[in-house]
Design a protein that fits this description.
single chain; Rossmann fold; 2 domains; ten-stranded mixed sheet; 14 helices; 16 strands; 31% helix
């Protein structure tokens, strides 16, 4: 072992001990975290290196060294490795993520595969002793929420970070969350979460699988079907077999901010009633399923109302502007990426109540800084990251419940404490799904 490896291993061993002990350290005086020495830099692998994965890899390189790239599409892997800002021709290419997890020189994995692969890879990465950065949405089903939560609790020595970057938007989303939590809008009565509708499309023709793409591996736990290019890569989100449409795409961002603001992200919290009667799909549905396999099938028009035990109503809809409208007894604000408006903002109702102290609180004892800065600081210092896995799973419960109610076009009831759909066996059957043999998710 050379001196660089020894230093890196010592650094990571110390950080793992801090995480396992649940250390929440005082904020560093650094304005942004960076590794203090090149010898301290961890080494990472990117699993899933398409558009989002490539962007993540470029960001990770500010803090860690890329040693491996993995993708079931050889073209994606080779393109990323040849990019001087990603692999620079030096990373080793793999097609099987298990080969990456077997490597002793990989400390961190960045997962940006299609959604239905996230949990299996993440759990096996934790089992292999890796820190995990995973893109949202983390899960595909309510059961997957419980499986990954159990794995994270078992492997407390690893930092698990979710790519919900709106949690690092100081002047927009963090300001909105702080304003609501401080009670400056009064009692919150209603929240409208605009996430747009999924696109319609199809029927799409069957095609030959492109050279270099392992279609069987891409499908993973999902059912084996004929290849249609619209099922793959950038448009996989519009098929319930691989994702949840806009419910888990933009929903993972905006439902997160809305639920965080009203303090509904603790275990046992969440909506108690979800009304999907006003939801529509681009193909015909019966019993929550469609027999049409050649067209996009996620909901394209909807207004799904979630009611919390507190009486707050949160409507997740496709018909309003993309963003979040908070309506309180004293005032209302609207926030989206790059914009926050409303009388409370114009009149600075949060003057002297939104500064470093409040940002440190929102960042769980860490200084405010960039999204991936926070991830690597937590690897170094310990503590939960701003985008932690446990609160994200509460968000995903809501996202999946919205999707189930929409597919069935009715009201479903949720026992948040027991995490179960009650009084509706058909809806409860959506809690989990059968996984294709050979691609089962580990149970810990």
């Amino acid at each position: 072992m050379n001196s660089r490896q020894s230093s890196r291993r010592s650094f990571l061993k110390t950080s793992a001990a801090s995480v396992a002990a649940g250390a929440i350290l005082l904020p560093s005086s650094q304005s942004a975290f960076t590794a203090q020495s090149p010898n301290d830099r961890p080494q990472f692998a990117s699993i899933g290196i398409g558009g989002m994965g490539s962007g993540d890899a470029r960001d990770h390189r500010r803090f860690a060294d890329l040693v491996a790239i993995c993708d079931v599409d050889r073209g994606h892997a080779e393109k990323a490795n040849s990019n001087p800002k990603i692999g620079n021709g030096k990373a080793e290419i793999h097609s099987d993520f298990r080969e990456v997890l077997d490597r002793n020189d990989v400390d961190v994995v960045s997962i940006a595969t299609p959604d239905h692969w996230h949990v299996k890879i993440a759990i096996e990465a934790l089992q292999a002793g890796k820190h995990v950065f995973c893109q949202k949405p983390l899960t595909l089903t309510l059961e997957e929420n419980q499986l990954i939560r159990a794995a994270c609790r078992l492997h407390k020595g690893r930092v698990f970070f979710i790519g919900t970057q709106q949690r690092s938007s100081k002047n927009h989303f963090l300001r909105a969350v702080n304003m609501v939590q401080k009670g400056l809008l009064g009692d919150i009565r209603k929240i409208t979460v605009g996430i747009n509708g999924s696109p319609s499309g199809g029927p799409f023709p069957k095609q030959d699988v492109p050279e270099g793409l392992d279609w069987d591996a891409w499908l993973g736990q999902a059912p084996m079907v004929d290849y249609r290019k619209e099922r793959c890569h950038g448009t996989f989100r519009w098929w319930y077999e691989y994702s949840g449409g806009k419910f888990t795409d933009w929903g993972a961002h905006h439902i997160d901010i809305a639920s965080w603001a009203i303090n509904e992200l603790g275990e046992g919290q969440g909506p108690v009633s979800i009304d999907g009667t006003d939801a529509h799909h681009p193909v015909e549905y019966e019993g929550g399923y469609t027999q049409q396999d050649d067209s996009f099938n996620t909901s394209h028009e909807f207004a799904v109302k979630c009611t919390f035990a507190s009486g707050i109503e949160m409507t997740v809809e496709s018909r309003s502007d993309n963003g979040i409208l908070f309506e309180g007894s004293k005032g209302r604000i609207f926030v989206k990426r790059g914009k926050i408006t409303g009388k409370p903002i114009e009149e600075n109702w949060d003057k002297d109540q939104f500064g470093d102290e409040q940002l440190v609180d929102l960042y769980k004892g860490k200084p405010f800084e960039g999204h991936k800065n926070n991830f690597y600081r937590c690897i170094s210092e310990g503590g939960l990251p701003v985008s932690d896995v446990y609160s994200h799973l509460q968000v995903m419960n809501t996202c999946h419940l919205v999707g189930i109610a929409a597919r069935l076009k009715r009201v479903i009831k949720w026992n948040a404490k027991n995490e179960e759909i009650v009084g509706d066996d058909q809806a409860a059957a959506f809690f989990a799904r059968e996984q294709r043999k050979g691609y089962e998710i580990p149970r810990v």
